Amino acid sequence: MNKIIFPKSLLLTLVSVLLVTFTVWAGTSVLEGVVKDPNGRPVKGADVRIEAKNFSKVIKTDANGRYVYDGLGVATYKVSLVINGQVKASILDVKTQRNRASPLNSTSI
């Protein structure tokens, strides 16, 4: 698996760009968050790619930079932010848990 390395200044920008939160309800997980640019403005139409073994889903951010995907099973995922066809950030080994919230801190990027 390829590891993505970012320059420190870009990494700090990406930390402010990608905010991911997991909430678990009824045995499944909800992936939700807000994507913002370096100036704190929401990014409309960005792709949030969620991948696991035998699973791949791409969801788009709305006008407020918000995205929601409901119904993730308990698994380990790779979550990527894609803007204008370019992967801007990827977070590997995102683990969801049944009946328990799984926070994903920005230091994981």
Provide a brief overview of the structure:
The chain has one helix and seven strands; from the N terminus they run H-E-E-E-E-E-E-E. The chain has 109 residues and is mostly beta strands. A four-stranded antiparallel β-sheet has the order 4-3-6-7, with no helix packed on it. It has a three-stranded antiparallel β-sheet with strand order 1-2-5.
CATH class category: Mainly Beta
Strand content: over 45%
| Helicity range | under 10%
Mean pLDDT across the residues is 71
Poorly predicted sequence stretches spanning 5 or more consecutive residues: 1-19, 103-109
What fold name stands as the CATH topology? Immunoglobulin-like
Radius of gyration: 13 Å
The run of helices and strands is HEEEEEEE
| Helix/sheet category | mainly beta
N-to-C span:
16 Å
Count of the domains = 1
For the biggest sheet, the summary is:
4 strands, antiparallel
